[in-house]
Amino acid sequence: MEAEGRTKKMTEKGRSYEMEKCCSSFRKTYLQWKENARGIRLRLREHCSIEMLEDLKFRIQEQAEMLQGIVERLHRIGALQPDVVQKMDTCNELTLSLIEMIDERIEEAVQNFVCILLSLNTTTVFITNSASMLPFLSKHQGCDPDFREVLKRK
What we know:
The protein has one domain: Methane Monooxygenase Hydroxylase, Chain G, domain 1. Helices cover 74% and strands 3% of the residues.
């Protein structure tokens, strides 16, 4: 904190209040993240559209980033506790695992889509407007070169 060129230090009471506020915020956000992660794992057992998968990925990433921000605040005020570090490590690990699973499901759906298109043997190719599909479609290894060229032109 700076005021008129000098640095103000937080009082012990202010530091204690800020620490409690951050810890409370971390606990609340962590429980939300944990509940969301559990819901995503259950949802991934079912059939999901690509749009739903993208939404699940966005939500879990957003919550993990919020948790990381709170941990950084706790670190700045010198209140980072071992249990918070352990929970954050778990969060990061599980979030990465879920993102990998979601990406695999998206790629699987895209590959199925490409196989269906290729099996139609038509000259007209319909490509969905989903922003995340084009990178997967364009790198699809089962595509013939002509199909990749159609994708690049779109």
